[in-house]
Fold this protein.
Amino acid sequence: MDATLRKPTRPRGSLLALPGFLSARYPRLALILIVLLTLTAAAGLSSLYFDDDVESLFDVGDSISRATERLHTTFPGLGNDLLVLVEAKAPFSASQLTAIREMHLQLRFVAGVKGVVSPASAREPPDDKGYPAPLIPAELKAGRNVTPLLRTLRDHPLVGFLLAPDATAALIIIDHDPKIRGLRASARLLRDIRATIGPVASAAGLTVTMTGTRVLRHEVVRALNRDLLVLTAIGAFIALLLCIAFFRNLPMVVMAFVPPVLAVIWMLGAFGLSGTPVTALSNVLPTLIMVIAICDAMHLTWAIRRALTDGRALPDAVRHALEVAGPACAMTSLTTALACLTLLASESPAVSEFGLQAAAAVMAAFVAVLMGVPLLALMLLRGWRPAPARPGGDLAEALRRAALAMTAFGIRHARLVAAVALALLAVSMIGYQRIEASYVYRDYLSADSPANRAVGVISDKFGGIDHFYVLVETDRAHHDAPPPALVAAHRAMAARPQLRGVYSWVSVRDWLRGGRADARTIAAKIPPRLGRLMTSADGRSFALIAYMPNMDSRDAGRLLRQLGRMLKTIERRHPGSRISIAGLMPKAMLGSPKVIDRLKVSLLFAVIAALVVIGLFVRSWRLMLAAAVPALLPITLLTLGIWATGGALTLSVVLAMTIAFGIAVDDAIHLLFRLRLEMDSGRAARPALLASAEKMGAVLFASTLVLGAGMAVSWLSDMPTAAQFGTSALIVLILALLATIMVVPAYTVLLCERNVEKDTPP
Amino acid sequence: MMSRLLLLFTLLTTLPGGALARGAADVLAGMHGQWQGRGVVREKPSAPKEAVVCSFQGRWERIRNTLHVRYLCFGADSRFETSGTLRVRGRKVFSDLLMHDRGHVSGSGRVASGKVLLSFAGKDDKGRRLRAQLTLSRSGGNRLRSVLRATDPDSGKMFTAFTLSLKRK
């Protein structure tokens, strides 16, 4: 049985708050250490940089990832396209076609541009002397009727896909130096391109918009950069205001606020010093660290304030606060770190790396808070006297009353609350189990982004520019004609109605209408970018490119799996050939559900592990069980809501759930630790619960308010994923607070009361 | 008296030539700077015309009376680059041009009515004989027209290889 509930003992765990005790014992040393750490980290901030590769998150090391690696080794430079969407109000006129060619030609002067493909690349098959004449004549007179020419361009087997069927839009593909990376270099390239084509386009009444992988990645990084700077600052400011409203005391606001800021500086400095880039995932870490650290710092500051109010001297109050709140702060950090470490089980190295970074950052935040708050208290609170109580007059009092009322409700209607919670958990588990994973790369872009709008236009007018490759590898060289496996794969793919265009060496052979289609002809007669794609130098690898509309990972995954099965059948019919689907798009579309589903399962393990840790910490399996339903409920209810409204589980949501769970369980830990202290002092479950709510309720509410404000700031982000992350985390936080304040007391009463009453001496 | 006669002789013999040399130098010096424009090129007499955009960079070296030139032209999927010098010596202009990946020619010519007319001979990158005529003419202060006529190494036939209209940047 749960023997520890019968014997009031002083909870162990003070050792967990060791950094705090050391800081209180040796404040000067702690100050020097904090200053040195902060200066070192600040020096690393200037080296901070961003990685724009969102798809790498879904690199799960499967056959598609391996085929993509082989594709990029054999055909370097693929998959990093920069596109220009050229639009007109009516079908292109002669002068507009000339302008498109002019843009094509001018672009070749731009530094970093390696090659350009556009409708101006279209040529006739080579004549009897071997010269392929350009389809758009060198001297095209303005006003000439170009309708037949537009039709010919659209039907061109190699570059026809670059002209929309209604001839009001065209695409220019820009092949650029893959070494151009980073925000500044990318911005320079995009600015030069815009400056080159802008005047030509506007003079001809055309509008131009840049898009494609390169531009989309640039926009993602720009949004990440903005979020990191602006949103963290706004979130911090709002949290500061809430701290001021709660503590109504400047030194205490500084105590609750400065250590979290230091934690963020340390973390970002470590990124800069170690040369680790900030990614689409690790971008959430500053917010996460800020909110976790503020939560712990508020609990610790509140405990110091209570101890001072009780009449303890400052050093004693600090030590007492570390004893009553320090271990709980340590446990909250440990459980959050544990939740983050479950991400190590992910098949995606990027997600595993994030899990490790997040766990390290959480522990760094713990050290910053445990060392910083006692130090600041000793420096700033000398001579502090509690202000006379103003009943009902401040935020803390209002929150305390609310918490007390809710806890009392949970205790009074323990059976009802417990039953409703259990029923909700059972129902919501259906949603958790059934919800499907989804990934749409456009969610990482602002809806207002011109590049994002262009992707929509391309999907509507061109049938999509999302593309993947089929890599055909043969055991012998083919230099004179495409290998039969490639021909079979090409014909089978071209027959699929979902695919907008299929291009390979077979297309060139068709274009040459029976002329010589050897590798040399390809190198000499077609645009280098398309030629490079057709065959490898050794004649053993061949790539086929297929275009499709923009879809979410569920639809794209189904299509790609069907195509994969079809290609495997072709492979079996052609011994000596290996046929694989490759490319960033299929890697992301097929890898994302695996990554998201694995995260979902990891999260459940994190919940169980956290509950076991809580049980060990408070040395009571009853209290562990009392925390079980409230810990699971916020997560399952959120997924039920998403599933019931037809939504899907995205990477942002599952990450928000993982992180918010880590934070949400903090509430339960703080409450249970206080409950344990109250029960150890001889109180029965009900009075112990009420006393805990009396002492902890206000700060639990306040910390959730601060955390919620921090999360809500992500609504200001341009990236829908960031807003989704914030909303999901906010919902989990609110549900977790309600569950902690109402459901934990209900289960505690049901599980512990009889036992304690029975064992309490008369 | 003797010195006056010498001066008169010098003036009589050198003035027209000097003026011409200065005229040629002025024409070439006027091509100093960055020019950009478009035109058409043709690789062979039978090849179709290709639209190109070109940049022309002229750097006038006054001490050596030499214009260093560099043409860079791009077609839809082709690239042409020519660099070399045009040097004024007396009434003549001497030139040496390297057509990257295509051949090397040298020649001479003259300046007449503001136009530079040059004839070249050389070899293409396969070692075959090559002849060409280049005309550079300025109109107004900011326009430069450049026409190259060349022989086809296979047939020996003369054809217009490129015609460019450039504008000062």
Chain B touches chain A at residues 38, 40, 43-44, 46-53, 55, 72, 74-77, 79 (CB under 8 Å). The helical segments of chain B are 2-29. Chain B has one domain: 2-168. Chain B is about 15% helix and 60% strand.
